[in-house]
Amino acid sequence: MYLSLLSKIAPILVLVFWSVSNLSAQHNNVHVHDPVAIKSGGKYYIYCTGKNISQFQSTDMKNWERMAPVFKETPQWAMDSVPGFRGHIWAPDVFEKDRTFYLYYSISTFGKNKSYIGVATNKNLDHESNDYEWVDHGMVVQSIPGKTNWNAIDPNIIQDEDGTCWMSFGSFWGGLQLVKLSDDLLSIAQPEEWHTIASRERATTGENGAIEAPFIVKRGDLYYLFASFDFCCRGAKSTYKVAVGRANDVTGPYLDKDGRSMAKGGGTIFLKGNEKWHGVGHNSFYNFDGQDYIIYHGYDAEQNGAALLKITEVSWENDWPVLKENIY
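The chain above was modelled as a monomer; its predicted structure follows.
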């Protein structure tokens, strides 16, 4: 009888064991590109590149649960605007102001600068809330081949000391841009105010002028600009790394440790790959509960260059950020 019973429950035990093991593996291997985060209602949320924008939630920043995509259906205006775009939305940024959450996102195709940055809003990030709903508001910024020498992707929002919100964005071409937003954060402020905050000359970098993914942080009286140099998206052959500079004003100039302007090719390398992580970058930066964190993706050489979530604590020395320890 016992053998008969064991033969019946053994497959169930194996299935349970596999499921628990698989769940643990998923928690230690969250596949992401371009992660940004926010904390709300005791939970942490990550948004990243993916079909209709991928999202995860966690209560401890270590165990992450994949949720349904932000959009149930890809915004039709985006499908109509960019030839070849099929709903794989890039590099979002999430920002909260006046109890409203703003999610900016990139509509583009690889290697092209016919691109758009759109925005959606929500009153609540809790998926079980009755008022959870992402409402799309369409385009905020666009880049046009032959007209704009920059690319409208990789948005990031920073609020200055006066309460004005700015969007940094861009990649390759003429570098990273900064533009003032309107009070409702749904369009560019009028009259328009633009600044180039970082760039790399193609002739001197040997990497085709590769720069993207700006993220600006205010700490005390200083603003810090993080930007990703070199190449992502090549698996174990990726050369991604993160540089940083700082400024007294949100519009720059952002200077590195040697006093070089990031708008003229400067930038102190802050985060780079190693034998395990071949290329790390497209970071975001936050203070959660009094601790600073840099959140980014790295290409895992032990998993055929898979892009995985990385979270590292940051401390400060002489008003410059210093990597502390990995928590994920």
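Residues 1-27 have pLDDT under 50 and may be disordered.
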